[in-house]
Amino acid sequence: MNFIKTDIEGLLIIEPKVIGDSRGYFCETFKKELFEQHAGKQNFVQENESSSSYGVLRGLHLQRPPYTQAKLVSVPVGKVLDVAVDVRTDSPTFGKYVMVELSDENKRRFWIPRGFLHGFVVLSEKAIFQYKVDNVYSKESEQGIIYNDPTIAIDWKVDAKEMLLSDKDLVLPHLKKEDYYTTSEYERNI
Prior knowledge:
By secondary structure, the protein is mostly beta strands.
């Protein structure tokens, strides 16, 4: 496995070694010891999966303390553009983002530690999105920002007329630093 550092501290792109032949392929998608050498000790408590069609945009979301979550995300079917936005108020990259294409072809994983908003848009006809998380879901702790916040200016690579968002995601607020927390506050419940 190849662990690729990004322009934002903590975010990692993970590329598995794929061994293929006429029968198909094999790859290790997760190896605890190796993962923890690069991302630190983790305790995944839940794994989730969603199915979406072209243009579906989910995000940008996170959970407030004490229910913050770190995520290891992947796409076993289809292709998505995955985005993580740094909202750790003490980070020099606050409000900056990393964008990664995840697909069944590249088999990449994306490690998103606590303190990042997360979202994705589907670029293929259909996509299955999977993510391991290190904390349980808490509806009361949900927080997010609008996908087209001009201060972040994410190019989602899909025409806005073709995007499908939930009613909830369409009314999310713009990014305001005072609504977020420091790195240690996000990590406090680990």
